[in-house]
## 1
Amino acid sequence: MKDATVPLPCKEKFAAQTRTRSSVSPTKPAVDLHQAQAIEPHSCGGLEMAPVFKVLDQNSSSRTGFMDITKFAIPEIIFGRGSLNYAGQCALRLGAKKVFLVSDEGIEEAGWLQRLMDILEKEGIKWVYYPGVTSNPRDFQVEQGAEFYLKNGTDVIIAIGGGSAMDTAKGIAIIASNGGRIRDYEGANRVQRPLPPMMLITTTAGSGSDISQFCIITDMKRGVKMSIITRTLVPNISIVDPLILRTKTESLIIQSAVDAMAHAIEAYMSRIASPFTEIHSLRAIDLILANLQRAVATRSLDSLEQLSIASVSASMAFSNAGLGAEHALAHALGGHFDMRHGVVHPILLTSVMRFNMGVNLQRMADIGRLILKRQVGSDQDTALAGIEKLDEFFATFDVALRLSQLIPESERHHLESLCKMAVQDACNLTNPRPATWEEFLRICEEVW
Ligand SMILES: [Fe+2]
């Protein structure tokens, strides 16, 4: 089974439990205790305790105030060209005898699945293959997969693929060990029992599912992507082999990178960001800006490797800091219109950044300075100029920049109900300024 969480000292638990919002200065906006607990509670001797509690001075780039306890959870990461070759040894370390493999058609066709099977067989490991993965993985696929996992007496779950394959594997792990329906676990910290050991091998540089405690599954009945967030979804091992990126299409490289960009920016602006996540956010933004155009134009292994590093950095940040309103809206739209996750970020991201600007100007100015490599007049000027530059950056790629390019006019009337769903998405809770459905709708109209 997966490693148990290292318990924190109990005195910290009691300190956190006795702290209430009333103890916080009313002049400073505070993280909502109940919301924050729902996002990232810590464990202390099996009990839930409060997450990172700090008073956020929304006008400060350094997030002044107290910061008592924080936590940074990541898997063991095996990174580098050829690291896929270590998959067999890694699986053995997790106790693999008969592994449950999850992948998709694209990876099969590119030959990576067979390569992995050969590597496992070389170590004497048997496998059972579950091929039921599509983009935007569905609830029934996960539930069927769990049945298949249990029926075959398999142990370690290994996914090789993009976010869809890895999220399918995570969903299967939840149902196989906790039972019920996948929708029972929507939201934060609803998974009680430990999961089977997991090793995730990413074939894209963006989704971050191989690093994160997130799992996104579509509820077919409601037509919405559910965010399932829990610490045990962090896999035991993540293998990141940049050589795999060479078989990716141009559009997939772009979609993955802009997804990673959105992860980095939303994590940096998150209400529960910490010094340990902020540094990874900034590094990821910088690397994507510096390498994406070259990666698309030349497919050089060096630039693809830099995008992989950026993706890992962005994932370490968002997994621990959470995301924001842009992802909340992207999940609602993506679930209903069955669009690839990466296509919506160039449309929504800068609009949501403008929406957030008034809440924490200095932090948006930090991002602006990173994008522009300089200060341009006031912080407000710098933040705005950075956002405009990011729009220009997205426009250099062959991507949709308006919502109307993805959604037909005849379907536009669905936006109101989808915006109401986005309000409920767990990602909206960590946005510096949780959006109302009317505000989400205004953003959609602005980018239509
Ligand atoms: Fe994402």
Note: The chain has a mean pLDDT of 86.
## 2
Amino acid sequence: MSKKCIWCATKEGELSVITLDGAKGEGSDVTVCSDECGTQIHEFSAFAQSHIVHFLVGLLVLPALGLIPLFWGYEGLSLLLICGFMGGTMILFPFATPQTMELLGARKSALLARIMGALIVCTGIILMFVLPNASG
Ligand SMILES: [Zn+2]
């Protein structure tokens, strides 16, 4: 069973297991390569737990509001809002799936989530200009 650092995904060095505080009190054991990575994953985990609601609202609720301009035929604006909310949320709260974190480490998967968020925002901006808007 290959163990690697949850934060930087290295397999080298002195890997040790630390326990992160869980949301409901029970901790989860993670593997880290150094005290530095342990500190980073502690902070990231605390950040994720305190913002998980914002993350879900930004990813699911706000984009739904972006559908509203569709009623007036503003397809471009609607897409811009949906992409802007989703992408912006991923940039602010770069929480990847546990599978991605397992594969890349939390540091790289957070970076990847931010890059994807930025791409989504750019896509929204481009679509806004490409799609014909109802003139009104
Ligand atoms: Zn590490």
Note: The first strand starts at residue 16 and ends at 20.
